[in-house]
Amino acid sequence: MVRQLDENTFIEGQIGPDDIARFKALGVTLVVNNRPDGEDEGQPLSADIEAAVRSAGMEYRHVPIARGMGPSDVEAMREAIHAAGDGKLLAFCRSGNRSTLAWAVAKSEDGVEREELERCAQGAGFSLDPVAHLLRDPN
């Protein structure tokens, strides 16, 4: 089930190549895969999803986050958000949680207030508690 965090960002659990047309119809211009290949048996490969995304005329980034989010993951997510520009970004992982956390920390690094990030995440059914210590406080 696709969820919207802000006007330009959608979050989803695991997707496959057959899902790409649905996201293109939503106006998605860039897809970010936050899952490492081989995390679960039967999981679609990043290369297969990338091929479907590119053949639909959209951009693709693979930012696999395994065993916690590091500074390079946050920076790669920031770069993806910036690359999407005025287009829409879809980030996905197993459940959407990892992608939401990466989005929140990246947006915080860009100066978005913690309260706004929490409101967006909660509206989509996610908690930012695991990364609360990484989010900017107001002031």
**Strand fraction band?**
15-25%
**Largest beta-sheet characterization:** 5 strands, mixed
Global morphology: globular
Strand order of the largest sheet: 1-2-5-3-4
Number of strands: 5
Task: Kindly report the average pLDDT value.
Answer: 96
Oligomer: single chain
Q: Helicity range of the residues?
A: 25-40%
- How many DSSP H or I helices? 5
Q: What Rg, in angstroms, do the CA atoms define?
A: 14 Å
Low-confidence stretches: none
- Going by helix content, strand content and strand pairing, the class is alpha/beta
Secondary-structure element order, as H and E? EEHEHEHEHH
Distance between the termini: 35 Å
Please name the defining characteristics of this protein.
alpha/beta, five-stranded mixed sheet, 5 strands, 38% helix, single chain, 139 residues, 5 helices
List the helices and strands and how they pair.
Elements: E1 3-6, E2 9-12, H1 20-25, E3 28-33, H2 46-55, E4 59-62, H3 71-84, E5 88-92, H4 97-109, H5 114-123
Parallel strand pairs: 2-5, 3-4, 3-5
Antiparallel strand pairs: 1-2
Summed up:
This protein is α/β, with parallel strands linked by helices and 139 residues long. It has helices spanning 20-25, 46-55, 71-84, 97-109, 114-123, and strands at 3-6, 9-12, 28-33, 59-62, 88-92.
